[in-house]
Amino acid sequence: MRFSFFHLMPYSAVDLEAIQDTAWINFSNSNYDPKEGHKLYNRYLDELEYADALGFDGICVNEHHQTAYGIMPQPSLLAGALSRRTENSKICILGRALPLTENPLSIAEEYSMIDNVTGGRLIAGFVRGIGCEYHSYMVNPANSLERFHEAHDLILQAWTQPGPTAFEGKHYRFQYVNMWPRPYQEPHPPIWIPSQGSAETKDWASHPDRKYTMLMTFSPVKNVIRNMNAYSDKCEEYGYKCQPEQLGWALPLYVAESDEKAIEESREHIQNFFNKFVLAPTEYRMPPGYSSINSYKMILENKMKFREQFLSIEMLMDNGMFICGSPSTVAEKLEEYQEAMGYGNLVIMGQFATLDHEHTKKSMQMFSEEVMPKLRHIGVPTVAAAE
Predict the structure, then answer these.
(1) What pTM was estimated for this model as a whole?
(2) How far is CA 317 from CA 66, 85, 268, 296, 340, in A?
(3) What are the strands, taking DSSP E only, across the chain?
(4) I need a labelling partner for 17 at 20 to 30 A (CA). Which of 43, 104, 113, 339 fits?
(5) Could you report the per-residue pLDDT of 42-61, keeping only the tens digit for each?
(6) Is 45 within 8 Å of 90 (Cβ atoms)?
(7) Domain coordinates of the chain in residue numbers?
(8) Is 148 exposed, middle or buried (0-12, 13-18, 19+ CB in 10 A)?
(9) What is the pLDDT, as a whole number, of residue 305?
(10) Residues 192, 170: contact at Cβ < 8 Å?
């Protein structure tokens, strides 16, 4: 199994009492203090660099806009900073929201530069962006899926075809596609698709032309198991066997000396995360036209019961949305879930909401030294994914 450390970079200095209905879109930036932001950016970069030193296989950043939930509107900038200050970990951008940009070639260029600087350590994440981003950027969500697929095709053309070439799409048109620099990795960096498991994503990502890694995020474990099994079934329908490296699971996780201590130390912070930072009305998250009717129905059925009540740490642990405990407890849980899901990539969010630097580093160290070695042997490919 491969292990990555993901950072959301929340604005943890926020006054929690100020967050009433949501920390997204209309939560005023008067709540942001640049002096605190300066300290947090540098602290969070230190934590990502520490993950590289501890032996994590990947360090991960992502993109969100106009929110205290995560202050990373331009993750490529931070990936660039990490490129020169880390040595071994893959740098995973999970990911750039393709439909929000009017020029996907700029994303292709950013990714290609990072891949060159690092000598091929980039993992390229592509996302549509959650519904909130479409309010912030004033992009029509009804065109989201079309724009995503078209932007993806344009980026792949730029990375793989000798230029100059032309691209004529419905949303993007370029007379000259001539990528300088080309990616370091051939034919291009590995592509991951973070998702909450829509039918459209599973069908598209598993296609034999792609075989992308589907990374399930922030979902009850029963939903994760169902969606990973459905992805594997799609691979079978396409005539090949799904490999563990095509499946990833991302979730918040905390390790301490005992189960009791882990719960005590993380309780306040994980509850702040799900009840304050994640909080957003359904109309923000799911604007009209953003999802198909079937996907919208599935999301509502799976999510609404969690949005209508306070999420305690016990509820989050019972639903597999948060794992915490001693190293042996955490390792046992992860092995149990891996057997049910078949994933080969585990992405842990080791800092969440208001968790302080000292406890973040302690948990990271215990996980790397006492959990990762126990699980390295599981979730490994049986054959090369490209075969």
Answers:
(1) 0.94
(2) 29, 35, 14, 25, 17
(3) 2-6, 58-61, 90-97, 122-127, 165-168, 173-177, 191-195, 213-217, 247-255, 323-325, 345-349
(4) 43
(5) 999 999 999 999 999 999 99
(6) no
(7) 2-375
(8) buried
(9) 55
(10) no
Cα(115)–Cα(289) distance, rounded to whole angstroms? 35
Q: At what angle do helices 104-118 and 144-160 cross, to 10 degrees?
A: 50
216, 224 contact by CB (below 8 A): yes
Question: 2-375: which CATH topology?
Answer: TIM Barrel (3.20.20)
Amino acid present at 327: P
Question: Residue 25 is encoded by which pair of tokens?
Answer: 């879109």
Supply 221's token pair: 């474990």
Nearest alpha carbon to residue 278 among 249, 315, 303, 248? 303
Q: Please tell me the distance from the alpha carbon of residue 163 to that of residue 169, in angstroms, as a whole number.
A: 17
Q: Please say if the pLDDT value at position 130 is more than 90.
A: yes
DSSP state of 33: -
Rounded CA-CA distance 31/182 in Å is 41
CA–CA separation, 343 and 214 (whole Å): 10
Residue 153 DSSP SS3: helix
Q: How many other C-beta atoms can be found within 10 angstroms of the C-beta atom of residue 302?
A: 16
Cα 182 from Cα 92, distance rounded (Å): 18
* Triad 353, 48, 248: Cα angle to 5°: 80
Q: Using CA atoms, how far apart are residues 221 and 307, in angstroms rounded to an integer?
A: 16
CA 57 to CA 298: how far, in whole Å?
33
Residue 299 is predicted with a pLDDT of: 64
Cα 346 to Cα 5, 60, 213, 315, 355: the distances in Å are 9, 12, 12, 22, 21
